[in-house]
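Format notes (please read before filing issues)

Several people have asked whether sequences and structure tokens are stored in separate files. They are not. Every record keeps both together, in the order shown below: the sequence lines, then the token lines. Line labels are part of the format and must not be stripped during preprocessing.
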Amino acid sequence: MKERVLLHVCCAPDATVPWPALRNEGYEVDAFFYGSNIHPEGEWARRADALRMLSQRLGGKSEFAPYEPDAWFDATSGMEGEPEGGARCAACFGIQLAASAAYAASLGYGRLCTTLSISPHKSPELINSIGASVAKNAGIAWIERVWRKNDGFKLSIARSGEMGLYRQNYCGCAHSVRRFEPVSAL
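Then the structure lines:
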């Protein structure tokens, strides 16, 4: 029997590399989408639909946390002015990974991993540190990976294009979307 891994997925394109790679390592992999950090809700829905599409393409299972943006806004209150990659992002990673670890532990998964480290815009050291901590607190093992290594990010772009997956141009939070769209679009 294969060991079960819950893969925290921030978006479908970023899962195109880790999901098959973990399977190739011999794990049974299920995806978990925590998206309460994503704004607006229509963006969350587009990303959730893309993950459903990827799950069908890969023949895998994906689960979705309820969309509760108020909880995310409460948890990051006072950090609105933080730069990208700052304390707000660290808190956001913690929120996403803690929710994933709790979900994994509640369903008997032995291991947790994330797609977050495929991004060239995020600190894999910070992500893996937070992931290891929340997994330990939940009583499960953390699989440390830096998915962007060996052109993982470029491969994710190619694979998501081949599959016709929606690929966003911002991390997802209301503060990062402001860099790309007028505030009135929120």
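For reference, the curators noted about this record: Strands lie at 4-9, 28-33, 61-64, 111-114, 141-142. The chain has a mean pLDDT of 92.
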